[in-house]
Amino acid sequence: MTHLPYILASYGLALGVALVLSIGAALRLRRDRARLASLEAARGGTPRRGQAGGSA
Amino acid sequence: MKRKTRRLWLVIACVVGLGSAAALTLSAFSSNIQLFMAPSQVKAQPPATDRTVRLGGMVVAGSVRRERHGETPVNIFDVTDGQAAVTVRFEGILPDLFREGQSVVAVGSMAPDGTFTASEVLAKHDETYMPKEVAEALQKSGKWDPKFGPPPNAASWNAMTSKDSKAAGQTR
Amino acid sequence: MNGRNLSATPTLTGRAGALFHRYANPGRFLRLGDRMQPWLTWPALVLTLVGLGWGLFFSPADWQQGDSVRIMYVHVPCAWLASSGYFALVVCSVLSLVWRHPLADLAAVEIGPVGACVTAVCLATGSLWGKPMWGTWWVWDARLTSVLVLFFLYLGHIALIRAFDDPQRGYRAAAILALAGGVDLPIIKFSVQWWNTLHQPDSITLTGAPTMSHSMLWPLAISTLGFTLGFAAIVVARLRAGVMESRIRALLSSPRRARDAATEQAA
């Protein structure tokens, strides 16, 4: 392939940014869900509607 | 509800106002936003020889001469916009995409003799993308010569596969 | 006379407002988002990998650009998302300014950074494509400059929406900025037609046949769809987290009730 370094840099950059954004979002979701669940539990034991259950 | 309606009209009024202000500004500065001058503009009103300008146009087929002055390659070619042509002189290595019939942008200044001395040449490729086989088939069939401009109507070739084009190339 | 003119609008805005507020309920959004997430994430992953793999290994090289044309399969989706993402920000801003839509504010907070990232990737891959093909990393033509302006608009929005202690003021200021910056979108789109630029005009238009071989168009379409779903998946995931965080803030800002509840339970 011609200009391989430029091509690889482009693909690597795009995939790297996508990876960082996805992992960041997943971790944030996990942390917030745990935090909310513990707060809700401390607050009254019965979680309100539409609460922290469900899958990622 | 009434307040929402008022806010909606306020937003619409602001968008319309801002949009027209931007449109007027851009049309007023339109000539400054152009990246390059065309050869006919340069011929009609030659810029001062100490001013750096950008000249854009198509490389005239058959006009490219390459010389060697010691170590540095010197390229001399004509650039046209269809109405006028300007001769460009450039010392250095041309970009890969440089060829006859390609659009280029040359950065430099006018020399006193009416030619253009470029310090940098950029290749401007067009918006057509096709595999090599398709380009060769189009050229073989006589529908297109890249030296003289853009390829024919896209609908006539964009569905061609490399197998089609090989077959087309063989029958010619 | 004005009254008659406006009489139709309250019902229109009212009905539209009711529709928007139906989805403004954060609890409803959390449930909807939970269900939507896998339908965005997995197709996004598969389509992006298929599109990029096809573009990198199986699509043909261009007759004049050679293999460098493969940069297109990441550059064009990012460019499309940079503009579309900003358009989504403009829509959120209108919903926020006119209808005070609470979910639109949270969405604007989350779209900004993701949009800035794709715009940065668009600019960087454009540079990486421009150097070998045009012969320069950067040129101040209308297309490149207007996309750089878009990147700064994203950065301004990100900063402004987080700049106030009272989040409502930040939402409002950022919405006004996003709305005003919306004029950049038509400038980006039409820059290559209105002015002469180093950047080539669009290959894919509404009016004519695409000036691109179908063997390149397919991987480009798949990769663009994959990137778009991926953008949506990331924004939805961040928005779900954002809704939960606003709920956490609400819980923490009434600590007495929370503590009372805790002691009650302990007792």
UniProtKB/TrEMBL annotation, chain A:
Query: What are the UniProt keywords, alphabetically?
Result: Membrane, Transmembrane, Transmembrane helix
Q: Which organism is it from?
A: Acetobacter estunensis
Q: What is this protein called?
A: Heme exporter protein CcmD
Highest taxon above the source species: Bacteria
Transmembrane residues, as ranges?
6-27
Gene that produces this protein: ccmD
UniProtKB/TrEMBL annotation, chain B:
> Where are stretches of biased composition, namely Polar residues?
155-172
- Where is region (Disordered) located? 139-172
Please give, as recorded in its UniProt entry, the membrane topology of this protein: Single-pass type II membrane protein
Q: What is a biological process (GO) this protein takes part in? A: cytochrome complex assembly
Q: Which Pfam family, any one, appears in the UniProt record?
A: CcmE
A molecular function annotated in GO for this UniProt entry is: heme binding
List residues in topological domain: Extracellular: 29-172
Q: Where is the signal peptide?
A: none
Task: Tell where it localizes.
Answer: Cell inner membrane; Cell membrane
Q: Name one GO cellular component term.
A: plasma membrane
UniProtKB keywords? Cell membrane, Cytochrome c-type biogenesis, Heme, Iron, Membrane, Metal-binding, Signal-anchor, Transmembrane, Transmembrane helix
Q: Where is heme bound in this sequence?
A: H125, Y129
- Superkingdom classification of source: Bacteria
Keyword Metal-binding appears in the UniProt entry = yes
Looking up InterPro entries in the UniProt record yields: CcmE, CcmE-like_sf, NA-bd_OB-fold
Q: Which family does it belong to?
A: Belongs to the CcmE/CycJ family.
- What is this protein's function per UniProt? Heme chaperone required for the biogenesis of c-type cytochromes. Transiently binds heme delivered by CcmC and transfers the heme to apo-cytochromes in a process facilitated by CcmF and CcmH.
- Put simply, this protein is called Cytochrome c-type biogenesis protein CcmE
Read off the lineage from the record. Bacteria, Pseudomonadati, Pseudomonadota, Alphaproteobacteria, Acetobacterales
